[in-house]
Design goal:
This protein is an alpha/beta fold. It has a seven-stranded mixed beta sheet. The chain is globular, with a radius of gyration of 17 Å. The C terminus is likely disordered.
Length: 274
Amino acid sequence: MSSLYFTSLNSGSNGNCYYIGNDEEAVLIDAGLSCRETEKRMYRLGLSMKKVKAIFISHEHGDHIRGLEVLSRKHQLPVYISLATLQHSGLQLDANLVRPLVAGTTILIGALLINAFLKNHDAADPHSFTVENSATCIGVFTDIGKVCDNLSTHFKRCHAAFLEANYDEVMLQNGRYPYHLKNRIRGGRGHLSNKEALDLFIACRPAYMSHLLLSHLSADNNHPDLVRNLFMEQSNGTHIVVASRYQETPVYTVCGSSLPSAVTSQPLGQLALF
């Protein structure tokens, strides 16, 4: 039971959904694909919706919630979502399936422990997550405007992680986006650049991190080969994968032999981030 299985069903501005589980149960982080497409991709991977016990929502942007209403209703899946995120989302969820999500609170789903913590992003109440058991920890760290103490502290505990590497700074600067959108992306509450993600990886990568899935790549301001090569030069044995915005990744397995003690997340306002 110490092994965890994980895959990206899709990662990008066109839809985000990540699967993490063990032999008995699993959770989805975000539901940005349609219900049908989520089911189709899981079927191709040999994953069963019957093992999925809950959906966790990071924030209210459409590429993270687009398929949530139908997916939750059809499969009667509880949705862990913060009150502010729910209020700003426009979602019509079954009230009996809504569960509170509060930063710093650990939620138990079978043998899985899910921790939510605050991050920098231009949403009402955005969260990142770790999913773990007694020996293994996997992080989901996307849609992050800048690295904070919460992110670096949790990253240091992960045996595997989904880490945003959204844009190359030169490609963004020279690209077709209007100036205000470029500033939104790189302004501290948008997305992580390749360099910012790599700096975090170099500074905080634990020796036992076996997999890093580079996630939420921009279609216009990044390229899979560029960011893959950048990280491969610093991988030190960590398996580097680019999570596609067009298809699912394979299912990866990670099994840790030990896990550092759980950490306590802090409100962003107490971290002197800005």
